[in-house]
Amino acid sequence: MKTLDERFWAKVKKSPDGCWEWQGRINEYGYGIVWFNKNGYRYNERAHRVAWKLQYKREIGKGLFACHKCDNTKCVRPDHLFIGPAADNNRDKIQKGRDRNLKGSEHPMAKLTDAQVAHIRKVKSESTKRFWGAKDLAKEYGVHITAIFRVINRKCWK
Question: pLDDT of 82-107, one tens digit each?
Fold first, then answer.
């Protein structure tokens, strides 16, 4: 059975002079995720935090963040990380001009583009039929039909 170190680093694409990017699962904010089973429970942790713990062989204190110097959410290179409280993380974010909420196609988990959203809304607005092709649009864009209805009802892509 492979150790955590072996399993973890097998999912990292290392660059000799740049970021080491996580190749496993990514969460809705663009951060790598590592899954664990412990005492019959399944939980996850952000990959860059796990990388820091593996490298320095200690836990990250309660209320502290593993912050990226490189601003690459997929990066797990330990020397690209620093530990600090939320205030340090927020100060770093503001100083680097990243203090904004990513919306629409800028969001790392976006499945649709601005043009596709505009097209979906146009198709709906031009249709007088009850069944106007939402299922076909979902299939065409590779999303669940719920995503199409969320776009139409402005629950997302406001």
Answer: 999 999 988 887 777 676 666 777 77
Q: Are residues 9 and 83 in the same domain?
A: yes
Could you tell me if residue 52 is inside a domain?
Answer: yes
Question: Does 158 reside within a domain?
Answer: no
Between CA 90 and CA 3, with CA 21 as vertex, the angle to 5 degrees is 110
Is 135:124 a contact under the CB 8 Å cutoff?
Answer: no
CA atoms within 13 A on the CB side of 76: 28
- Does residue 22 contact residue 29 with C-beta atoms inside 8 Å? no
Residues with Cβ < 8 Å from 22, sequence gap 6 or more?
11, 12, 32, 47, 48, 74, 75, 76
Band (pLDDT 50/70/90 cuts) for residue 47 is: very high
Q: Name the token pair of 46.
A: 């952000």
